[in-house]
Design goal:
The protein is built from 5 helices and 6 strands. It is of the alpha+beta class and 148 residues long. The longest helix has 21 residues. The mean pLDDT is 85. It comes from Anoxybacterium hadale.
Length: 148
């Protein structure tokens, strides 16, 4: 039988606030299973999380880099469904081609037809965010006929 730990137990073991543990679960950094109203983490998954966190932290401290995470919601006015699909597909392709040093990131996009708008939600490393925001700027500048 596997050992399962609650968010509160992990919080006490690692001396990390429970909301931070829940954020790690939401972001996919810590694998967990929802049982009833609470999350449970296997000992194996906790070990993997602790190992990857210590590797990442020691690598960053060797390089002298700080970890910077950002999020953004962007609304882009579009000319119709085809334009929306073009923008969403381009951003998804750029996100999928990101280098591994950008770490975990996420992009969600939604075409809001009644407003003729694409809503883009981004989360990730500051380098990833810069690339994605530059891509959005390029896509929207092209639409206005502004050359880069």
């Amino acid at each position: 039988m596997k050992d399962y730990y609650t968010v509160d137990q992990i919080s006490e073991m690692l001396d990390i606030h429970p909301k931070t543990i829940q954020r790690y679960i939401r972001e996919g950094k810590l694998r967990a299973t929802k049982i009833g109203k609470g999350w449970r983490v296997t000992g194996h998954d906790l070990s993997i999380f602790m190992q990857s966190n210590s590797d990442h932290t020691s690598e960053e401290s060797k390089q002298g880099n700080r970890k910077v995470i950002a999020s953004s919601v962007i609304d882009v006015a579009v000319y119709g469904k085809e334009d929306a699909i073009r923008i969403m597909n381009t951003l998804t392709a750029v996100s999928n081609a990101k280098p591994p040093e950008y770490g975990q990131s996420s992009i969600q996009s939604q075409y809001i037809e009644r407003e003729n708008m694409v809503r883009i939600t981004l989360w990730g490393d500051i380098g990833f965010m810069a690339v994605m925001l530059d891509t959005v700027a390029s896509l929207t500048q092209e639409d206005r006929g502004i050359a880069n």
